[in-house]
Fold each of these.
Amino acid sequence: MSKKVIDLLNAARSRELHAITQYMAQHYELEDQDFGKLATKFKEIAIQEMKHAEKLAERILFLKGEPTSKPDAVAKKGQTIQEMLKTNMGLESTAMKMYNEASVTCAAEKDQVSKEIFEELLKDEEEHYNYFENVKDHIDQLGAAYLATLTG
């Protein structure tokens, strides 16, 4: 199997590990600030990212590679909700670009299964991006009134 594909899978896994730590850190901060509804959604997305990381690791192992356990960056802490959303949209946007390119490379390397994994993850990342963007837009338009709906 292709070392190039294993490297792509590991780069994606590293990005997923970063997203997990980022979203969980935000979950804890939001929960502590009594933004329970938003905190719960961030935790749900983090769990989806955990499943992505696991799927990538399983594929790497199948291809006789060694799954990375190192996130590609350190989680940012102490951000406002608007800053969190901007950070998260950046993570998801980067993942979408990475996974689109990776699926093309996997096809060129004749690894249809890895290509399909990247395409599956891409759909989830698009949904995450859409969620973060919608919340940001609601905050931009409605401000404190919308934030009040996210408490408890």
Amino acid sequence: MPSLDRRMRFRLLDEIVEFEPGASITARKWLRPEEDYLKDHFPKFPVMPGVLMLEAMFQASAWLVRKSEDFANPVVLLKEARNVKYADFVAPDQTLTVTAEIIKQDEQLTTIKGQGTLDDSVAVSGRLVLERFKLADRYPIHSNVDPHSRHNLRAEFDRLWNPA
């Protein structure tokens, strides 16, 4: 039986620097020179893979959705990535600043406008469609997982978001 543990296995965000519930989020990812994937991803020209830039946008977007709903729907999945454009490389020791803004939302889906920038230059942008739900609604036998997930997600959000 496949695992129903849907936690991310890796974190691509170092901190959340701005958060406006129901509206937007800004987070940062500092690309450390020692990150494992840089050894294989163009070893002579190490850069953050585009798919990880997209994943950073998704992770920021998921935090925006979860926290805006007070973690009511702990499961947030990337359903679609639309019009994703890559315009710059993220190299070691650079910081990717990711912003996500809610464009529209219904009972299950949230559409996000996202981008990642280096200083004032856009490195990646696109629209993401996120699906959100409670595990208990889809898999009633696992209804005990949602409270545990909410607890862990709240703790992780608090680690990332430390407003001054």
Amino acid sequence: MKAAIVVLAGLAVVALVIAVTVGTSNQDDAADADIGVAQTAPVEVIGDWLPRFEGSQPDPAAGVMAPRVLGTGFDGAKHSVRPGDGRSKVIAFFAHWCPHCQRELPRLTAWLAENDLPAGVDLVAVSTVVRDGESKYPPSAWFRDEGWPLPVLRDSPDNEIADGYGLYSFPYMVVLNGAGAVVVRVSGELSTTQWEALLATAAATTG
């Protein structure tokens, strides 16, 4: 009986070692996946920049044509924001270190897992204001670990996309109509109900 207890104890230790090793290995693999991944990249912001959004109403950018954006994702694939293509757009800006963004991103990810975007509406995520060493760095791992299902545009080191769209605080959403003009801009965490209302606003302005 004593021998059996010793054997069982030994097996438990081995199982614990294996579990710790596997867990550490998975963490190392996740970290290795982002080695060499540039967290920012050059972008082109073409057209007049929007005035900075400070929450005042009426929004000075309402009805103003938004600039076009050419950039890349964390995988190097080319992505763009092309206002005026007939499709409405919701452009969502996130900073990995922002506590509000850290709550907003998983909430929107969960919503997207259960719902489709309205017809004629595109959702574009922008990773911006990257800070090495801050919480959830690197953002490429943060978006991946949260399960974000859509491409992410990397902002430039100088945050040109954020500045071009008038970002002031996080999270930040800009809705463009099908003609490419600003419909509404909002900053701060959105509840699921508020998020769905924002999408409904975008859907009503396609074409």
Amino acid sequence: MAREIVQTPNAPTPPATYSQAVKAAGLVFVSGTGPHDPKTGKIVGVTIQEQTRQCLQNISAILVAAGSSMEKVVSATVILLEEDDFAGMNEEWLNWFPANPPARQGAKLPVRVSGLKISIAAIAES
């Protein structure tokens, strides 16, 4: 089975230990993506809604580079720093997935990064 590494300058550059995404088996596996500005690398937003929006914008850019789109997302993992942010994250989530949302699971961030409230990973059809 062939696999293809996906890389775009329209999303934050990941560390050398993982790729933005990998295409394989007819799917696109997007790594955990934070709310970072693709150009500056700085965290965008102070509210969970702003940070969720930036994460999803970054994921969208990666999916477009892979020849996919947000409409093809089948599963997502949302990792929050604080469980109190769940409602605010869902508020922004519904702007991106108003109907027929993907399967989803949640977890708690295992480490603290100054200012970071959320990271999202996704799997989409290619």
